[in-house]
Design brief:
Blueprint: E1 7-13, H1 18-22, E2 29-36, E3 42-50, E4 55-63, E5 66-71, E6 76-80, E7 85-88, E8 102-109, E9 112-118, E10 123-129, E11 136-143, H2 144-150, E12 171-177, E13 189-195, E14 198-202, E15 209-214
Length: about 240
């Protein structure tokens, strides 16, 4: 019987010389290596590559045969596992006009790559990567005002923020396919959103929402909202755990 095998990928920062270390300057040269469980040997892929921006390797996203990482800019770097190539995606064009935003979520759903960004306005923007990786497009604008009508507690601190800069206490934890849907060709998605004391499933197209879980509220949560948790996708592994 043929046993399943797996491929491990690692990307590491090349060594920095002592002069650069004293100046607190990193080399920003990275190297990719892969290891197959068949051979148990690490293989160097290509030459070291230079990346001026900081790469966030902690939360990589596997989608369509590639591992994706988000840079400090809104550009995504990804490694094509089958072809053993490192590539990058274009930057969303509208970011040049509105540079003030925060990365809210980066992940996959329905075999598509999604990117949620938030500004200090009552909405978020959900971006989806095109199938040919030629760029991002706006999937929808997430209207947090509609969500707050059903869950007004997420606006509990509006009295302490400027009227022109409302800030809802909520975070996008995950983008997921429609619950119970067998046909995902249309690509409709829902969001899992956290807010003080609750986890909510929200459909940005229909604005329908419902509570799916509760979170404990501690005394320090009365005035400050902390996002101190994350969501991880469940999938079957090649061996029991």
């Amino acid at each position: 019987m043929d046993l399943p095998y797996y491929l491990s990928v690692r990307v590491f920062l090349r060594g920095t010389n002592m002069f650069a270390y004293c100046l607190k300057v990193t080399s920003n040269w990275y190297q990719v290596e892969v290891c197959s469980s068949k051979t148990t040997q690490w293989k160097t892929i290509g030459k070291p590559f230079f990346e001026p921006n900081v790469l966030h390797f902690k939360n990589g996203v596997f989608c369509k045969g590639a591992i994706h990482w988000l840079k400090t800019s809104s550009i995504c770097l990804y490694f094509d596992v089958d072809n053993e190539l490192m590539k990058s995606t274009p930057e969303p064009p509208q970011w040049k006009q509105c540079p003030s935003y925060s990365h809210e979520y980066f992940g996959r759903a329905n075999d598509h790559l999604y990117f949620v960004v938030k500004r200090r306005l009552p909405n978020c923007t959900l971006l989806q990567m095109k199938a040919n990786y030629s760029g991002w497009f706006v999937k929808c604008v997430i209207d947090l005002d509609r969500l707050a009508k059903n869950f007004p507690f997420m606006a509990r601190n509006f009295d302490y923020t400027p009227e022109f800069l409302p800030h809802y206490e909520c975070n996008v934890l995950c983008v997921a396919g429609l619950e119970g849907e067998s046909d995902i060709d249309e690509g409709d998605v829902e969001l899992l959103v956290s807010m003080p004391g609750k986890i909510v499933r929200f459909n940005p197209r229909t604005n329908a929402s419902r509570e799916i879980g509760r979170l404990p509220l501690y005394p320090y949560n009365d005035s400050v909202w902390y996002k101190d948790f994350s969501v991880n996708e469940y999938f079957e592994t090649i061996c029991p755990v």
